[in-house]
Fold this sequence. Notes:
594 residues; Beta-lactamase; elongated
Amino acid sequence: MRIKFIITILIIICFALIVRVYYLSVESNTYYEKLSENNAIKTELIAPIRGEILDSQNQPIAINKLGFKIQLKPHMRSKKNIKNFQKELNKLVILFPSLSKEKMIKKYKKKDSYYTNTYIDIVDFIPYKEMLPKYSKLLLDENIHVLPAPKRYYPYNEVASHIIGYVSKANTKDIQNDKLLEIIGYTGKNGVEKYYNRYLEGEAGKRVIQVNAHNQIIKETSYTPPVENRNLILNINMELQQFIAKLFEGKAGAVIVMKTDGAVLSAGSFPEYDLNTFVSGISQKEWEKLTTSLDKPFTNKLINGLYPPGSTVKPGLGLIYTTTKLNPTWTVNCTAKMPLGKRVFRCWKHQGHGKTDLVKAIRESCDDYFYKGSLQVGIKLMSDGLKRMGLGEKTGVDLPNEFIGTVPSREWKMRKYAQPWYMGETVNTSIGQGYVLVTPMQMATFTALMATGKLPVPHFAKFIGDKPYNPKPKDVLLPKEKWRLPLIRKAMMQVCNHPKGTATHYIHSKIKIAGKTGTAQVIGIKQDIKKRRLEHELSYYSRSHAWFTTYGPYYNPQYIVTVLVEHGGHGGHAAGEIVSKIYDWLLEHKYIKK
């Protein structure tokens, strides 16, 4: 009985071994064949060359400089290869004295591991001219690979820096969102470089190769070229951009020159900064200088600068007033003071404006008219109307991280501060002060709305590839508002042309324009101060911001010019000459036809 049991066990074991041998030799053959194929066939992704950015005259404003990167063979820090490792690094330092041996070692250590089988980047970029005489010598070294590596370059340095943006090394978060960055290494970090990054970076190519056990290439089985060199053409004219940069020397603020359909011909946020410092990595000292300056050169003031609009909102509020609770002939008697509770709201003109209607109120920027009108109309109609006109809303401009700004209301204040709304806050809102905050880009589109009756979508891109980009303006005005719009335009024309217009004495343009000045306070004025100090008597950072937003020609609106001079004082005085010279430039270069 025992012998039978042992024989049975032996038969079972033999059968199990036979089944296992059959499985390993026959059934798993397909699996191991596939595994072998994966070991022998490799797929390499090919990084595309980033597209260039051109201005409207096809002048390059973001290009790729031709150069090379240097790679070193992996596993060279072992005891067996350490001498060769040091030898190769010393050779590179002798050939290229600007290289840092310590930095190369640091980069190599970061990527070198037991599992690394590809050559490791130790030098990101060597210019073409510098590499050319030494290329053949490096080519003979089996431990070193030299590969083409374009580097982003901005020929205009700081001009239009906030529009163009820059590329820099991709971080972990960037790579998680875009796997292509694993092989490219660089990504758009600001401006149109970031907004159109996916388009500009292109698409990876693919190379399938067969290798032997020593990782040597036997043959190339297939090749798919990358989709690359996707150029982006902007509406920007760099000649005008440079002209405006000179006009703004020594000043801080923003300028926008935009066609009435939204195409942005020029836009500057000042001070600007050199884009090329960011491509290879900015130093800590330079970074601190940019981020700690009181003039905020690193902030894109076009879309991220939030400012009280001051009197520049008065044309829009006048339109709201005369299409809701008031009629166009409604007048006030401005005595320069309006008591409300325990406060006195004062007009900027010490002696008052006397009898004032809508046209005069906009022309001479009478605060009292808008104070009293706001108490008749109320904050809800004012807030709803201004939002519909594009304030407190994103413009949709093709730049990343656009700010919304603030158009206050009862509901807004309750959500933000859990506090009730007061009548005095309605009065402050009526002259663009208090909680109201706008961006220069919003003010430019708001002005275009007054000029044409349509709210444009501002855009820098002219052609994306071979496709024109021209988003349609929005129809946001109510029928009654469209009917009253000529009255607002008349008032804005008188701002720049009537003897008592707030901008008339500062405008010297060959073009007849219309517009609105604004003086936005940055510090409050106490109630017990009976006589205000003049702007030039205040310390620089206590002075008001100066706004001047315009359209022209008056009878045939073609362009919007919006200027904000930080701490510039009165809008017309600070910005009138800048605006005049910009319109004259447009005329001389045949952008405007009389």
